[in-house]
Amino acid sequence: MDQILAQIPVFVYVLIAVVVLALLGFVLLRGPKAPPGGYDSTRDADDPAPGAAGDGSGEHARAGGGTATETKAPSLDTPESAGSRMARLRGRLAKSNNVFGRGLLALLSRDHIDQDVWDEIEETLLMADLGTDASMELVENLQVRVKAEGTQDPNHVKAMLREELLKLVDPSMDRSLAVTRKGDTPAVMLVVGVNGVGKTTTVGKLARVLVAEDKDVMLGAADTFRAAAADQLQTWGNRVGVPTVRSEVEGADPASVAFDAVKTGIDSEVDVVMIDTAGRLQNKAGLMDQLGKIKRVVEKAAEVDEVLLVIDATTGQNGMTQARVFSEAVNVTGIALTKLDGTAKGGIVVAIQRELGAPVKLIGLGEGADDLAPFDAEQFVDALLE
Ligand SMILES: Nc1nc2c(ncn2[C@@H]2O[C@H](COP(=O)(O)OP(=O)(O)OP(=O)(O)O)[C@@H](O)[C@H]2O)c(=O)[nH]1
């Protein structure tokens, strides 16, 4: 072997070394290889570069004591399309609430329905927070129908139960939200409810839905008890490019911030102004005073078209008490029932509508940005019986 190596001329070694060094240099200078077709861009071609002039970041427009900040994030969130959102949320509603419907179907499908079974049916209804009156009414109606029509055919039993539940949920109620401009003024919505029920989250989610429908939206942070509450609302607004009017002063007068929001909304010719209020109220008199004052002051600029009461579906009887107190303080025009994903007690829809005489207009089905759905009586009952 040594002899063979000795016979190779030195210039061959030099040649090999030169070739190896040339290859190494080529690879290092060229850098890493791009994948075929290049890299995906997360920015659309017409999106402004982050931080570029005109990207919407930064503050502008002062209004009275409040400040409207249109801090559009460099790349805005695109809300989920209505179709896919509804399909996903229907599945979630059925998942958390069909325990109740299936239980009823199983009881009604028994060969022989005696008084014990009727008692069990009533108990199931009460457990789902339907309320005493509605539960008794449903049992009475079903008793009459079972006697007349029998329970032999499971499909017929299901259809019968669907019809009776639907009557209670009342598909004839007007569940549309006042979110359309009237002449020269935007629609004005006050969002009320005790703390922690999901007011700010609901305002944020609703802003996304409205933006997806091409509406111009303005948010008003009238929860001035905590600076963090205004920050939270503004974060929701920033994500979809909606301005928020807020006060930089903690504890500022909520009515004044609400007025500024509506005034700024009028000047900017938006379609709808949504005002998030505080729920941290010590007593009923304080609540009446504060909400009454906000409404009165706002109405110096524009009529309040919608008072949306937010109720946490998991709080049962507590939610009912809140509904009563708020309806005495303001004229509630619609209900947003949140956290329906966390409870099988969907019957509260019926109880609360009966208590207030106002329709459930929105339901919250999760913490995600697109987890808000318009309430639809038929879809709701179908989800219970799925
Ligand atoms: N699972 C679930 N959680 C929700 C829903 N809606 C709101 N939440 C959560 O409830 C919590 C309270 O929501 P907020 O929007 O801060 O409630 P708020 O009423 O504005 O509370 P305050 O600002 O304290 O008055 C948050 O963690 C939300 O993510 C819902 O539909 N489902």
Automatic annotation (TrEMBL):
Residue stretches spanning the membrane: 6-29
A single BP term in Gene Ontology: SRP-dependent cotranslational protein targeting to membrane
Reaction catalysed by this enzyme: GTP + H2O = GDP + phosphate + H(+)
Ranges of residues in domain SRP54-type proteins GTP-binding: 359-372
HAMAP family: FtsY
Sequence similarity: Belongs to the GTP-binding SRP family. FtsY subfamily.
Protein's UniProt name: Signal recognition particle receptor FtsY
Lineage of source species: Bacteria, Bacillati, Actinomycetota, Actinomycetes, Micrococcales
